[in-house]
Amino acid sequence: MHFLGYTLISTGLVFFLGTTIGLLRFPDFYTRMHAAGKGDTLSTVMILIGCICLVPMSLLLAIKILLIINFIFIGSPTATHAMMDAGNKAGATPWRKDSK
Amino acid sequence: MNTFITTAGVALIGLMLLVLIRAIKGPTVIDRLVAINVIGTKSIVLLLFAGILFGQLEMFVDIALGYGLLNYIVSIAASRYYQHRKSLEPEHSHGGSPVS
Amino acid sequence: MSTLPIWQFDVLLLILVVLFAVVALSIRNLMGAAVVFGAYSFMMCLIWAGMGAVDVAFTEAAVGAGVSTVFVVSTLYNTGATVQPRTGGLAFKLFIGVVVTIAGAFLLSALPDFPEWGASDSPVNAKVAPYYILNTIADSHVPNVVTSVLADYRGFDTLLETTVVFIACIAIYSILRIDKAKLEVGEPAAAPVPRYDPGDSLIVRQASRFMVPFMQLFALYVIAHGHYSPGGGFQGGVILGASLILLAISFDLKSLLRQWSEKTLMLLVAAGVFLYAAVGLACMFMGGNYLDYGFLDSILPGEKDMARSHGILLVEIGVGITVMFSMIAIHINLASNGRFDRGL
Amino acid sequence: MKYLYSFVVLFMPWLVLSGKFDSLHVGMGVLCSSLVAYWCANLLFQEKAATLGGRLRQLAGFVGYMGWLLGQVILANLHVFRVALSPRMNELLSPQMVEFDSTLEKELSKFILANSITLTPGTVTVRVEGSRFLVHALTDSVACGLPGAMEKRIAKIFERTR
């Protein structure tokens, strides 16, 4: 159980590293959104599940953390979509392969 | 375990610093918004870490739950701003010529 | 400092906070500044949490993530996010710099007079705090000392703080609210707001559908369990307000106003403060001092200590009602530019 | 009926949140849950025709779907990771907008499809207008695969009312 917790938190951190690099390296707003939307959700969820595995806690507390995960699963893609839509409507310029 | 959590937390804050680069660089407001959204989600994780280190998880879980519920309101409000007013001009961040 | 379990966090977060503040000040687009300032408030919340001040952290979380940035955004929605270039020359900038430096130096010169952070022999920690910590369980059965200090021992402060929220709401209302009839005669009609398109926010609407009920449930939980866990009337009220603001953002302002008419809103804002003050008056009628809930033991269940606990709950509910409806009224005023028809 | 359903749905999380089972706190729970149920019943339960059995079957199907989705999310992250770390990133990327019509009718199933698209590899939903989905795809290969098997899965679980 402990081992699982350590693994999950470390994996979550690695995924968050991937998100960060994606956020910094990707060329335009739309592609950055891909990195942020996916990596953010998964890394947070993984670290939270890792906390459940790692720390001895009561069942109710574990369910509360599962509730947080649930809300992140609903909220994060929605926020991603809202920002994507806003950027698109406001006219963020997409990156094209031949533009460089 | 506490050492591991502390290390993980420090790594998380370090990665948040990297994300901050995106918030500083922009170039548009929506890019900053993406970065801030990621940082907000990671605050939930850091709150839980602080709770584990203090040994009082049940108190910090409530704050994290509140964050999980409220975190995406800002993104949605800001996106709604750009969905209604279609103006997204890249602005210069560091005291350069202000956008008229 | 190094005895704290998480001083590493604190140091790094302090760096982040300063960075966020500098970035927020240097961005020339107000929307960008508002957004980065939201992140500043996230970091402040983490710093409070790192100091172990969970109630303050909770307030910062609820206000920072829930309403403050939304207020700024809805204000900018009606004013525009671009800044005019400053016209003042070098002399003006120098003048500002000198004034700020002198003021900062004065503030810093007062720093050595403070007791060291967490010092056990400082006046606060020597007399007042131990009394609260030792007596709160016996007095009022409230394990969370912060709640009993705020709502019981220092109930006057909290009453006046609630009144401040009430006054803020009234002030914003009286400045921004525009009468429809007057508008037709005097001012030119408002710039045409883009028509609300119901198709464009299906995802947001569906998500809010699931989130809002749980937000409200959580907020009521925060108010009801202020005795045991961090939180209380203020935080719960802000979250309740934020949930309705989310409804207004994701559906539209009209649907919120259909549910809560303008009149009801303002009556409820006043009702919360009234409830708080009335509990205090009731204590006086029962023979005690103002806000001395112990004397309510003949109308509330339980002995004197339990009556204090229930009295705290009552005033927390009052605070919650005022804060919740103030937040909504302020948001509607800011978002619709005082017209109460449509907005962000 | 929807008030009763919402009450039950809200009272269970209250018990989890509260963690105290004495009469005062459970009583406050009943009060608060009914208050929120009164406010929000129209939000939580929008379908009139659905039966209890149908709802429970939907829930069971949804749990299974979540398991499948979690796998997709991990794949999505590996995909982003590979693209972001690749030194030849610009060659891998060919961002494009894809539009397609969905056969789904209910708003709920459209919402789940849109969020699933956001969480699966290489695609993010930009807009849903009526039954038209506007999706931003990261590479050519994922752009061709839309809407994929997801739509059928969702249709199987959510489109039937009873």
Write a structural description.
The complex is a heterotetramer of chains A (100), B (100), C (344) and D (162). Chain A has 100 residues and is mainly alpha-helical. Chain A is built from 3 helices and no strands. Chain A has one domain (2-89). Chain A is 82% helix and 0% strand. Chain B contains 3 helices and no strands. In chain B, α1 runs antiparallel to α2 and α2 (29-54) runs antiparallel to α3. Chain B starts with a helix and ends in a 16-residue tail after the last helix. By secondary structure, chain C is an all-alpha fold. Chain C has helices at 7-26, 30-50, 54-79, 90-109, 123-140, 145-153, 155-176, 180-185, 202-224, 233-250, 253-259, 262-285, 304-335. In chain C, α7 (155-176) packs parallel to α13 (304-335). Residues 192-196 of chain C have low confidence and may be disordered. Chain D is mainly α. Chain D contains 7 helices and 3 strands. Chain D folds into 2 domains: 2-44, no CATH class; 52-159, no CATH class. The chains are: A mainly alpha (100), B mainly alpha (100), C mainly alpha (344), D mainly alpha (162). The C-D interface holds C 199-200, 202-203, 205-210, 212-214, 216-218, 220-221, 224-225, 228 and D 6, 10, 13-14, 17-18, 20, 25, 28-29, 32-33, 35-36, 39-40, 43-44, 46, 107-108, 110-111, 114-115, 125, 127-130.
Strand content of the residues of chain C, in percent?
under 5%
The computed structural class of chain C is mainly alpha
Oligomer: heterotetramer
Helix content of chain C: over 70%
Shape of chain D: elongated
**What's the number of structural domains of chain C?**
2
**Strand/helix succession of chain C:** HHHHHHHHHHHHH
Low-confidence stretches of chain D: none
Poorly predicted tracts of residues of chain C = 192-196
Approximate helicity band of chain D = 55-70%
General shape of chain C: globular
Question: Mind summarizing the main beta sheet of chain C?
Answer: none
What is the CA-atom radius of gyration of chain D, in angstroms?
20 Å
- The tally of beta strands of chain D, per DSSP, is 3
Which two chains form the greatest contact, residue counts included?
A: B-C, 60 and 69 residues
Could you give the count of β-strands of chain C? 0
Order of H and E elements of chain D: HHHHEHEEHH
Largest beta sheet of chain D, briefly? 3 strands, antiparallel
Defining traits:
heterotetramer; A: 100 residues; 3 helices; 82% helix; D: 162 residues; mainly alpha; 2 domains; 7 helices; 3 strands; 65% helix; elongated
Brief description of this entry?
Chain C is mostly helical. Chain C has helices at 7-26, 30-50, 54-79, 90-109, 123-140, 145-153, 155-176, 180-185, 202-224, 233-250, 253-259, 262-285, 304-335. The radius of gyration of chain C is 23 Å and the shape is globular.
